[in-house]
Design goal:
This protein is mainly β. The chain has one helix and 13 strands. The structure holds copper (II) ion. Copper (II) ion binds next to loops.
Length: 226
């Protein structure tokens, strides 16, 4: 092969490798492809409370990021657990939320996150008992928060003891806490919800990865006129 030919081969090989590296890095930076939107607008008569059930898991166990913490939602139409964190809800309607918390916890860096805020009655229930604040230095600490910044709503998700379930959806035979609370949707609009506990293990300050990726530790409330 001529010198020019060899140079061309090396150049092409270099460009291919460089292209793959750029593509690989881009893949790491691009947030997960948003999933569908689970529709809760036609699950009950107009004006009646909407029942919204989610679970939090310590590791999703499937997909592109099997080790990531995540939320899942119970699809009201199929009864199945979907890995979608965008939910279409009717405006000005009470949402009765139930959270099955399957993840472990730890003391919070910011004790504010232990407070229940923005819910109807400014409280929540933990395994049937009402509470307004959870001291994360007790029990198994707090794993996550469910927070809607636009509504000043935040509820701590109390951690479980023992071996957290490793593959979602988790079932009642794994250790879990059940929390409930209610809030009222505002007028139509798109409102993000998220977890504020830096729970993305292995990322800078725990805030990358699952914390900043749709369908893991955050999502959207798509509130529509009812
Ligand atoms: Cu979290």
């Amino acid at each position: 092969m001529s010198k020019g030919g060899r140079l061309a081969v090396v150049l092409v090989a270099f460009l291919v490798v460089a292209g793959l590296v750029v593509f690989g890095v881009a893949q790491l930076l691009v947030p997960g492809v948003p999933g569908g939107v689970v529709n809760f607008t036609d699950t009950q008569a107009a004006g009646q409370p909407v029942h919204l059930t989610v679970q939090t898991v310590g590791s999703i166990g499937f997909g592109n990021h099997p080790t990531w913490v995540s939320y899942l939602v119970k699809n009201p139409h199929t009864g199945k657990w979907d890995h979608d964190t965008s939910w279409e809800l009717p405006a000005n309607t009470v949402i009765d939320m139930t959270v099955y918390q399957y993840d472990s916890g730890s003391p919070l860096r910011n004790q504010e996150w232990g407070q229940v805020q923005g819910t109807i009655g400014r409280d929540a229930t933990l395994n049937g008992k009402s509470f307004k604040v959870y001291d994360s230095y007790t029990g198994n600490g707090v794993g996550h928060t469910f927070a809607i910044p636009a509504l000043n709503l935040s509820v701590p998700m109390v951690g479980v003891a023992g071996n957290p379930c490793a593959v979602a959806p988790c079932h009642f035979n794994s250790p879990h806490n059940i929390e409930t609370f209610s809030f009222k949707t505002p007028g139509p609009g798109s409102y993000n919800w998220q977890c504020f506990v830096p729970c993305a293990l292995g990322y800078l300050f725990g805030n990358g990865g699952a914390m900043s990726t749709q369908n893991y530790m955050g999502g959207e409330l798509e509130v529509v006129a009812s």
